[in-house]
Structure formats: C-alpha cells, structure tokens
Design a protein that fits this description.
single chain; 100 residues; alpha/beta; Rossmann fold; three-stranded parallel β-sheet; globular
C-alpha cells in the first residue's frame, strides 16, 4: 500500500441481506465518529458502474472491513470481493465478530 493519502478511511464489504440490520447502522455510526466510509449507499450514484466503483473504493481506502455473516458466505461475489480486498490491502488487520 502506498503512503499517499486515501480518500476513505475504511471500505465496507458486506452481504446486502445484512444491510438493514447491521451494515447501515454500522456505516452511520462510523461516519458519526468522523471516519470516512466507502459504503455503497454513501458512495454510489445513479449510473455508476458497480464493479468500477468498488475497485476505486478499494484502491482509495486505507482499510477494508469485511463483515462475514452467513449470507456473506453464501454469496460467491462476496467471497471474491473479500479475496480482492485482502490483495489490495495487504497490511490490513482482520478481526472476526460473530453476528447473532
């Protein structure tokens, strides 16, 4: 990872099924703490290419946060995105939290 300033502090990777119950409140809480968050609802605009926007978000974020949940594991795209995330952000630390 280069030492240049990043546009976002954290990129959130998640399953859309977790959006209402966990992800949106998490993104809002992080934002309220002054953490700049790449989160699809904050960062995507009508007409944006989702894959290009995700690639840009990954490359312009200092850290990646992957929320691993049963829906995330079931979605192959989510698994591929997690792999891509850790390739782009090799110095990121990981932490697991069980969602119940």
């Amino acid at each position: 990872m280069s030492n240049t300033a990043k546009k976002w502090d954290v990129f959130i990777s998640h399953a859309s099924e977790d959006k209402d119950t966990f992800i949106r409140p998490l993104a809002i809480a992080l934002k309220s703490l002054g953490i700049s968050v790449w989160y699809d609802e904050f960062s995507l605009e009508l007409g944006d290419s989702i894959s290009r926007s995700i690639d840009k978000g990954l490359s312009e974020s200092a850290y990646g946060l992957v929320v691993i949940s049963p829906p995330f594991v079931r979605v192959k795209l989510g698994v591929r995105l997690a792999i891509l995330l850790f390739k782009k952000l090799p110095s990121a630390t990981t932490s697991l939290h069980r969602m119940t």
